[in-house]
Fold this sequence. Notes:
The protein is an alpha+beta fold. It has helices at about 20-30, 60-80, 190-195, and strands at about 1-5, 40-45, 85, 95-100, 105-115, 120-125, 125-130, 135-140, 145-150, 155-160, 165-170.
Amino acid sequence: xxxxxxxxxxxxxxxxxxxxxxxxxxxxxxxxxxxxxxxxxxxxxxxxxxxxxxxxxxxxxxxxxxxxxxxxxxxxxxxxxxxxxxxxxxxxxxxxxxxxxxxxxxxxxxxxxxxxxxxxxxxxxxxxxxxxxxxxxxxxxxxxxxxxxxxxxxxxxxxxxxxxxxxxxxxxxxxxxxxxxxxxxxxxxxxxxxxxxx
Length: 198
């Protein structure tokens, strides 16, 4: 990753480079650390740039990071000409509905994966708060697939809901010892698995 300063909201000439790119505008609103003196925002830009001009900044909180991941995934699905619909509000257990070439709608949950110990890790439970505190729930039957985005690798993965437990790790690097129970990341790459087969 390369860190670029981006002027915001406009430079001395009254132009707004941040506003000229909708994806950067969307992300920069949630980035912490805006400096009024220099009128700059810290922004990480992926030098790999595979259809989206930004990476998910580590300075974001978990909710904002999830929003940024959803923006990346939806943009990547649209880039692949996959029809996508988003539910109104935050009351659904799924983040989007993606349509296959046959017109079948699939409910997907978008998850942020993080790279550690040669694996992309991802949580498979939702969290919300009620009067007794935080509640963690599995997605059993509420979604069809998880789309996992790893910002570290700039990679999308597609995981069937039936394979997902409370958490999952996709092995990127070869293990020290052979193990048939390992989830190999290359077997879950989005482009190799879309559209999913029944």
